[in-house]
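Work Package 4 report. The design task specified in the project plan requires that, given a folded chain encoded as structure tokens, an amino acid be chosen for each position. We show below one input record used in the internal validation round.
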């Protein structure tokens, strides 16, 4: 007689769930922990088991199944769920761009006999920020009194939202409100505001705020604050002040990262001072700051702007020798430089060489090359790139499509135009603008058979 399988304990279930990588199998295991369940003795799940299965389902974006588990959790009376479980769920919804579900979860926390604290509020604010739900964030800000007392993190998130909207007035309003409520701003608060001001070329205000944070609030600027100011100064070509700020960082022993040096290198190229780049690289080395892909890309971009491709490839070689693998941004910069200079053959060769260099082209690579080929009137090559783009589920910019179709219409190249429209149709990329460009040419053309086929292609989209 076969021995019946042993029942597993709640502790054993948690162990098995932790080891199971497949979320579907984990869900099946959770719902059916014992092969021969006793209807008079229901299985007693542990809180850890709920936490584990909810996490696995959330990461897999199996939200309907996760809701099923939550509904079951609500019926538990042996324990009270921890707030961190709901924070994780809200975070999953934020990453999936599902703000309404994140809000619903936050509102439901008390129904699980769990107290909402500032942790779940800040998690909700972060989720709404990820979803760019600025109106909902403002509603929460206006109704602060209905929520757990906001802390500095809460205000920092709202200030960040104002800066992302380029509504610095709103960000400043939040900053003033936090002081009225006795919440002390920290370095993140000032860093966010200063970055927003620099991004909007309000450098005088940014420097006044830096001075205020030091003198009034006794908060020391960190690397992010300095990097924002250096970037803002370089943007308006104030290189002397930017280098002074870099020296101030060294004097105050603020850790200098590659971002600051890379920004200065880009600015030097832009100002026509590439000979000074060597000095910046030397200073990087002296301060123990190793050049990374951002630094090398800044140099490659600078040389490409000057059409000095030998120097650009020299940087690429140096990059590889130093063990810094060139990324797709690096190749996109080089291909873009070749295209702007009219060196389309070199751009195509580099594009075709990318897989051998173990770097896959991305949508920017394809768009850059396609646009360059269109500008260079290389229609046959552009058609091949377009077809490959559509196959990879990429799409060129609308402006490039319009330009390409216009050029083919002016050249009266119905055969290639038909090929292009077929490719666009595969990707559902034919819009009203394309219609308007193509129809007049078709109506005027005397090759009626081709025109008929062309119209059929348009009508099928």
């Amino acid at each position: 007689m076969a021995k019946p399988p042993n029942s597993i304990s709640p502790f054993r279930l948690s162990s098995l769930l932790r080891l199971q990588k497949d979320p579907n199998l984990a869900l099946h295991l959770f719902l059916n922990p014992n092969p021969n369940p006793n209807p008079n003795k229901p299985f007693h799940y542990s809180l850890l088991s709920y936490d584990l299965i909810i996490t696995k389902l959330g990461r897999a974006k199996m939200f309907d199944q996760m809701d099923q588990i939550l509904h079951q959790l609500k019926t538990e009376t042996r324990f009270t769920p921890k707030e961190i479980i709901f924070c994780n769920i809200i975070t999953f919804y934020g990453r999936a761009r599902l703000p309404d579900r994140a809000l619903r979860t936050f509102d439901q926390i008390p129904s699980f006999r769990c107290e909402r604290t500032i942790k779940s509020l800040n998690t909700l604010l972060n989720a709404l920020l990820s979803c760019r739900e600025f109106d909902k964030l403002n509603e929460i800000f206006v109704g602060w009194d209905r929520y757990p007392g906001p802390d500095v993190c809460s205000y920092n998130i709202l200030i960040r939202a104002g800066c992302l909207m380029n509504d610095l007035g709103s960000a400043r309003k939040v900053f003033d409100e936090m002081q009225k409520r006795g919440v002390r701003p920290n370095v993140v608060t000032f860093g966010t505001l200063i970055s927003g001001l620099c991004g909007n070329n309000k450098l005088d205000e940014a420097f006044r705020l830096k001075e205020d944070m030091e003198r009034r609030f006794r908060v020391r600027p960190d690397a992010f604050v300095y990097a924002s100011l250096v970037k803002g100064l370089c943007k308006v070509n104030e290189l002397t002040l930017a280098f002074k700020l870099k020296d101030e960082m060294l004097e105050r022993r603020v850790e200098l990262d590659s971002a600051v040096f890379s920004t200065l290198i880009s600015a030097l190229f832009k100002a026509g001072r590439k000979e000074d780049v060597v000095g910046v690289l030397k200073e990087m080395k002296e301060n123990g700051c190793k050049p990374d892909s951002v630094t090398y890309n800044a140099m490659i971009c600078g040389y490409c702007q000057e059409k000095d491709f030998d120097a650009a490839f020299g940087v690429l070689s140096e990059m590889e020798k130093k063990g810094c693998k060139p990324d797709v941004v690096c190749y996109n910069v080089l291909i873009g430089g070749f295209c702007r200079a009219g060196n389309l053959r070199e751009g195509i060769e580099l594009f075709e060489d990318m897989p051998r260099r173990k770097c896959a082209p991305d949508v920017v690579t394809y768009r850059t090359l396609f646009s360059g080929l269109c500008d260079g009137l290389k229609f046959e090559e552009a058609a091949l790139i377009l077809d490959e783009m559509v196959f990879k589920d990429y799409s060129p910019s609308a402006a490039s499509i319009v330009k390409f179709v216009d050029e083919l219409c002016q050249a009266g190249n119905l055969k290639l135009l038909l090929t292009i429209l077929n490719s666009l149709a595969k990707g559902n990329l034919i819009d009203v603008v394309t219609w308007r460009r193509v129809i007049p040419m078709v109506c005027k053309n005397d090759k009626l058979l081709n025109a008929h086929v062309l119209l059929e292609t348009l009508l099928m989209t």
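The mean pLDDT is 87. Validation will be extended to a larger panel in the next phase.
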